[in-house]
Amino acid sequence: MTATDTALQAAPAHKARGYWATVGRRIVRDKVSMACALVLLAILLAAIFAPYLHLADPYQGSMVRRLRHIGTPGYPLGTDELGRDMLSRLIYGGRLSLLIGILPVILAFGIGTSLGLVAGYAGGWANTAIMRTVDVFYAFPSVLLAIAISGVLGAGVVNSIVSLTVVFVPQITRVAESVTTGVRNLDFVDAARASGAGALTIMRVHMLGNVLGPIFVYATGLISVSMILAAGLSFLGLGTKPPEPEWGLMLNTLRTAIYVNPWVAAMPGVMIFAVSICFNLLSDGLRSAMDIRN
Amino acid sequence: MPSTPNRLDRRAPLKLAAALLTGCCLISGAALAETTLRIGMTAADIPRTLGQPDQGFEGNRFTGLTMYDPLVNWDLSSATKPSVLIPGLATEWKVDDADKTKWTFKLRPGVKFHDGSDFNADAVVWNVDKVLNQAAPQFDASQVGVTASRMPTLASAKKIDDLTVELVTKEPDSFLPYNLTNLFMASPAQWQKFYAAAEGADAKAKSQAAWTAFAKDASGTGPWKMTKFVPRERLELAKNADYWDKARVPKTDKLLLLPMPEANARTAALLAGQVDWIEAPAPDALPQLKSRGFKIEANEQPHVWPWQFSRVEGSPWNDIKVRKAANLCVDREGMKDGLLGGLMVPATGTVEPGHPWRGTPTFQIKYDLAEGQKLMKEAGFGPNKKLTVKIQTSASGSGQMLPLPMNEYLQQALGECYFDVQLDVIEWNTLFTNWRRGAKDPTANGSNAINVTYAAMDPFFAMVRFLQSSMAPPTSNNWGYINNPKFDELVKKARSTFEPAARDAALAELHAASVDDAAFLYVAHDVGPRALSPKVSGLVQPKSWFVDFSPVVVAP
Amino acid sequence: MLAYIARRIVYVIPIVISVALVCFLLVHITPGDPLVAILPADASQELAAQLRAAYGFDRPLPVQFGLWLWKAVHLDLGNSIATGRPVFTEVMTAVKNTFILACAASAIGFTLGVFFGLVAGYFRDTWLDKLATSIAVAGVSVPHYWLGMVLVIIFSVTLGWLPAVGAGPGGSSDWHWDWAHIQFLILPAVTMSVIPMGIVTRTIRALTGDILSQDFVEALRSKGLRETRVFRHVVKNAAPTAIAVMGLQLGYLLGGSILIETVFSWPGTGFLLNSAIFQRDLPLLQGTILVLALFFVFLNLVVDIAQASIDPRIKRA
Q1: Quick one: pLDDT band at residue C314, thresholds 50, 70, 90?
Q2: Is C248 within 8 Å of chain B by CB?
Q3: Burial C175-191 (b: 16+ CB within 10 A, else e)
Q4: CA C102 to chain centre
Q5: How does DSSP classify residue B296?
Q6: What are φ and ψ of residue C200, in 5° steps?
Q7: How far apart are the first and last CA of chain B?
Q8: Over the range B38-74, which residues count as b (16 or more CB within 10 Å of their CB) and which as e?
Q9: What is the pLDDT of residue B1?
Q10: Which residues pair with B85 in a beta bridge?
Q11: Are strands B72-74 and B454-455 parallel, antiparallel or unpaired?
């Protein structure tokens, strides 16, 4: 959240291909990052291919087998408050949880980068118009803004994604603008301009390559925040609606079971924690592989 | 307290001494430490304290009937008998023989508000005007919504003498006494004091400021007086030793009400000893609460958990055989024990035997799978020809109990009777809004039954609004457009029968007719569970949404 | 310096007005009856129309906004629909409670964060560094509402050491800094402190590491400069950024307390916001959001000015 202010002064003009190869080599050698990437990949694949994993129906409950303990034969992670298989719900839950956690960052990355590039490259009134608007939204603490928008729009997956996107766009725009402004004044852009390249070409070829890296790292750092916020919205009853499996909502509905079966009730929180910490570590690994100062 | 010792007992003097000693200790103990009953409510905020509470009947329970009295009260003294109307601040009432829209209410003499002013006819007129007369200075729009909708026919009030008022209704309505349990008598003198001191640009602003001040320092006639009010956090009430009904002077010195909307937080607070009593404990925590010595109190409430059938053209429920079959195919006892841990009462109608409106239905609602299957076969369905029905319900909501598991249970049970039940699960607030829009509205989404629970205390809210054809949307909650001339005729008869016993008989006739017609799928009545610390005793849990806190004792 | 402060303050005014507009629009553009809090679903349509007029919700939106803004300038945010109480006093009471919580959480989070950060920075790439960074990453990654639940289960329900919910035995109105009250504060404050703890640790670690790796520090050390002097040097150079980060974190805690306050029934702004959302109490909702956003804007301003006065090189537009 605070990385914006570091202004990412140093965005050196690397030669694109060799640089990315170096980054790739460095990150593969980073054990922590690789472990995190594997965990995330496993969760993601399981969520995507859940229907082929021969899991129990995540919606089918039964009153006679409510709140079974972890390790019950047939229910390796127990059952929830309506007797639905926890393992199945946690895996299926990854679908919505990852969707509403990651999609807003991707959307905000697209929108924010475009706005920031335009503002940073064009300068002048375009910069003023974009950045002053961004400042207004930036004036709200992110949790407050997300909850206010969701609270007003009402519960629902789409509304959650919209509200989180609105929260992240200003942050990414700010980073993108400051990086672009920094790069714009560097020698090689001037050289390109002198050689008669059009504004679009300059933006596409020279600036995107040098600008995207830092923004990308910043955005990956946002994913963990987004995961926690998205689940938090569902936890408050402002996100996913029952009976959809989603980790935040599961945490909410299992709260009443915490006296009977605290470990089962804690499982969705563990999933959110695991994904969030993996994204954070991966983002850190990426950051140091790209040698961007924090 | 010590009882008179048995004369035949030789050790009587000793016992007497011991008893006296204990008595002394108790008295001095009480003088040293006053007793406080701390209650965790389910409300997210303290219900409004200015006389007309919000937050539904929980509001009336905690900030209505504690600090205030209505003209007509509920009898909350028995755990076994149905809760019926008894005199409150009015001692008797009757309708005018010539003009059935005019009622005379005799008021209780010698009653004083907590601020010392007298309760009289002027106070009643003032309190009616606060919600019905827009020209009155004390008219408060914020209190109108909850109050006026529960008194649909009351029009105005007039003073006859100091202890007599005349109430006028828009049309003859024998249900008026029920409606009046929702109008609480706030002190005009106390309000006037705040009004005189209030600052504001105009009379309306001053009035609003006066009500805000009144809410912080309220004055009614009830058994409890407001002593401290921290908005959104706590309300402290102290016993009113001068309460007009000496039998109901509280046995505890203080009542402390805390809003705790989270079932889990409430349960944790009880387990941690922060409160002595919680409403609606987390169901899964019941075994743990019991094992730690906490008491669970529950009793049948005037509440119905139904499927309300669509009777529009083409609805599968238009065949009475299908309606009856559904009612016969549900093992309600199985649902009670297997699903709800005993916390429900099987429903065989809107009200159960023993209630004055029960009547004698000929159709017996019970679990009879064979009979249900037979009726379905007669209606033309069978194992290979299932009847598809779609139910709109919510995943949560006030009074909905455990809507999803219960509907899934019904889905399985009715499956045995050749029904194919589909559930349309929507959000509670949306469901509640759709309820008013009716089965013909697009929001019904093709469903031909709706699952919205309701309170059944007042004849209008228990039966009339569902059964009378003129109550179809948008007027009221006849969601399924029931149009049964017999119901209409019986509603009319009940509404225009003013002698209470005869009115109840007419209502019983209406109820019996609705059961015989299997107008609803009657499933369950809620029991309003609450968990009490072992220190709490003396509670009588009546068959009501309300409870009398006066006899409750808290051991120090 | 004064000119800089004046410029910053002038720059804040359009932001404040825009923020007010966003608050108002956010709450008003969505469909739904604003009187749902006091109007039962079975109320008649005449009654609904009558009340809508009584509350002024039948007037055009620009007029409503103008009236609201004009009153807001005079510290009148209207009255709550559900409770009838003035929104301004409701919000201010809640702000006080959130402030208590946020300050306690900051005290815990910042102290631990600075400590872990310095340890990690000084002993870079040792196991101490790894331990401190792991704690920091865990702190920023843990869903804090879940952590709160877990703490309640352990310390309130199982061990019975600390109260589970609420803000003191007598409610928040008679808050004192004594044990009877502080015991209510511990669990929510600890839960709330994990995020700032993590972020401050990471910031301080990076700053310390950078400063220590500069050539002249080595030079100073080789000249026999005592470690205390080196430490003072580190503190002096790290302070402006650290203060800025902490200031922003305090702002985030004030505005982002809703999840924790819901778990612990702490009667602060988040709790208020939650009930305003679920009761659809529009005046209360827009008032709470506005006050919180303005606090955040104000805090940003103070942080900028403080930062600039410590280190005049950093002057942002």
Answers
A1: low
A2: no
A3: beeeeebbebbbbbbbb
A4: 7
A5: E
A6: -65, -40
A7: 15
A8: bbbbbbbbbbbbbbbbbbbbbbbbbbbbbbbbbbbbb
A9: 35
A10: B74
A11: unpaired
Coil, strand, or helix at residue B2? coil
Burial C89-119 (b: 16+ CB within 10 A, else e): ebbebbbbbbbbbbebbbebbbebbbebbbb
Residues A290/A217, Cβ–Cβ less than 8 Å? yes
Angle, CA B447 vertex, CA B443 and CA B451 arms, to 5°: 90
* B259 contacts B230 by C-beta, under 8 angstroms: no
Within 8 A by CB and 6+ apart from A14, the residues are A209, A210
Closest CA to C95 of C303, C297, C261, C291: C291
Give how far B321 is from chain A: nearest CA, Å.
Answer: 29
Q: Residues in chain A with pLDDT < 70? A: 1-18, 61-65, 187-189, 203-209, 242, 291-294
Of A154, A155, A259, which has the smallest distance from its Cβ to B284's Cβ? A259
In what order do the strands lie in the sheet containing B234-239? B224-230, B234-239, B254-259, B36-41, B277-279, B530-532, B295-297
Q: At what angle do helices A86-122 and A208-235 cross, to 10 degrees?
A: 140
Rounded Cα–Cα distance for residues C300 and C252 (Å): 11
Q: Which 8-state DSSP code applies to residue C58? A: T
Partners of residue B521 on adjacent β-strands: B307
Cβ–Cβ of A259/B408 closer than 8 Å? no
Supply the pLDDT for residue A53: 84
Which is higher by pLDDT, A38 or C310?
A38
Q: Which of A119-123, B483-487, C55-59, C181-185 has the lowest mean pLDDT?
A: C55-59
> What's the average pLDDT block by block, 10 residues per block, for chain B (556 residues)?
38 44 42 81 87 87 95 93 92 93 95 95 96 91 84 92 95 93 96 91 87 94 94 91 94 92 81 89 83 91 94 94 96 86 91 93 95 95 94 80 84 91 79 86 90 91 92 87 95 93 95 96 93 94 92 91
Contact (Cβ atoms closer than 8 angstroms) between residue B479 and residue B443: no
Q: Which residues contact B170 (CB under 8 A, 6 or more apart)?
A: B101, B153, B154, B155
Contact C282, C64 (CB under 8 A): no
ipTM: 0.84
Alpha carbon separation from B47 to A223, B13, B67, C34, C91 (Å, rounded) = 41, 52, 12, 19, 18
Distance of CA C210 to the CA centre of its chain: 29
**CB–CB of A155/A239 below 8 Å?**
yes
CA distance C3 to chain A (A): 21
Judge whether C137 is closer than 8 Å to chain A, CB to CB. yes
SS3 B55: coil
Q: Which residues of chain C does B258 touch, with a Cβ-Cβ cutoff of 8 Å?
A: 166
In whole angstroms, what is the distance from residue B403 CA to residue B425 CA?
Answer: 9
CA distances to B47, B283, B298, B525 from B528, in Å = 18, 12, 6, 9
Backbone angles phi, psi at B159, to 5 degrees: -80, 130
Mutate to test the interface with A, among B271, B286, B407, B408 (most CBs of A within 10 A): B408
CATH of domain A72-290: 1.10.3720.10
**HEC secondary structure over B415-440:** HCCCEEEEEEEECHHHHHHHHHHCCC
- Domain extents for chain A? 72-290
Residues 194-233 of B with CB under 8 A from C: 208, 211-212, 215, 230-233
Interchain CB contact of B427 with A (< 8 Å):
yes
Backbone angles phi, psi at A170, to 5 degrees: -60, -40
Q: Report chain C residues whose CB lies below 8 A from the CB of B455.
A: none
Q: Checking phi first, is residue A61 left (phi over 0); if not, alpha (psi -120 to 50) or beta? A: beta
